[in-house]
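Tutorial handout. Part one gives the primary structure; part two gives the three-dimensional structure as tokens.
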Amino acid sequence: MKRADVLQQPIRPEPRPAITAERLERRGHTRFPVSISAEVTELKSRASITGRATDLGVGGCYVDALNPFPKGAHVGWTDPTN
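Part two.
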């Protein structure tokens, strides 16, 4: 097969597995949409970051921050309005 023939062949994307609701939502508890300021402190070093907490639930929340702590960091949070 010539190079020109290869370049003219249509590109066929790889088949992807179906995305189901179970694959999208793996949390054990319902989360509720919120948007509040949060200050998160790494417990060992006492370093803190500020961000915006969203998706609040029994198991936790998501905190959007510019420079988040690394995965596995042990953290606590305080209400910055106090």
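Part three, for discussion. The longest strand covers residues 48-57. The mean pLDDT is 77.
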